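#onboarding

Welcome to the new folks! Below is a worked example of what a typical request in this channel looks like: someone posts a single protein sequence, and someone else replies with the predicted structure as tokens. Don't worry about understanding the tokens yet, we'll cover that in week two.

Example request:
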Amino acid sequence: MATRTNRTISDFKTAMQGGGARPNLFEVEMTLTGLGFDLPGFDATEFQFMCKAANIPAQTVASIDVPFRGRIFKVAGDRTIDTWTVTIINDETFDLRGAFETWTEQLAKLDNNLGATDPNAYMASATVYQLGRGADPSSKSNTGSANAMLQAYKFVDIFPTEVSTIDLSYDSSDTIEEFTVTFAVQSIERLGTSAVSGASPGVSG
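Example response:
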């Protein structure tokens, strides 16, 4: 009779490196210096603090069905990337909210629909850093002063497609305003642990 090896909790502990990656240990860095227009109010360091949620978007490879004598042969189709969404805490300056509204205004004005048409002028890049709890991956102590970088993903040629609503209500209490920005993404580069953060000294490569 065929059998399979019994797996124990100790085996699982050994297999799960570093105790597992944590979804709340991350940082988002957005580079807007190459835009063809200014975004008053945008501050890269403030964005790193106020960006409270992000994601690593799904990547999909379509399947093409090719009929053959009453059967279907499946071949790989085009690869696409889902939109990328970040959630931003809104402080009393409204600086970040205003910056992203200005970005969409530069893409298409509401009164006459004029906007930037050169992709190099309105596309930017952003990087998501997945951080570890220790100064080193699989850290064995609490020494150090910076978080290890476990992985980094760079989103290339992005631009905003939606700046979400901010809900206002007398019924809302004990809460802080936030909004989301959704971006179209041209491509993704997995940078690995050799990536260097240019604006955050709290991240070590």
